[in-house]
Amino acid sequence: MPPKPRATLTSLLLIALAASAVVQAKTSDRKQPTQIEADRAEYNTKANAPNVLDGNVSVIQGTMTAKGAHATVWATNGKTSRILMTGSPVVLTETLDDGSPMKATAAQVDYNLETEVAVFTGNVVLTQPKGTMNSEKVTYNMKTGTVNSGGNGQRVKMILQPKSGA
Question: What is the total count of domains within the chain?
Fold first, then answer.
């Protein structure tokens, strides 16, 4: 039986709702096993060739769940290097370290594990109790903590909730 593609998709959820407040995904999730399911899978035994998952793709790691219609997983030297999920839309949910829920939806999520850059594209909506952000594209560089959003001439829209008791 071929090995299952493994990756820490939790990092996909490390998105900022504002430049000064980076959302931290539940750190304990990264230490949990990754469960991957799909209606169909095509595993390629050639080095660096993509593995394809189709139909009701589900990736679960700890409190993090990612669901989409299709996923392509690339490995370099036997180690997962990139994951591209598409769907109608791709839906990511997770419980954050502070216990609050996080939800992200996008037409496509492309995570490069080597560069530690996650790119959400197509009607991106990020929601958590602190607020929401809508954009055509959100790019998060986990090494630098930089979040860039916008694209296709569309404006970024954010709604930030006031602090409790304010």
Answer: 1
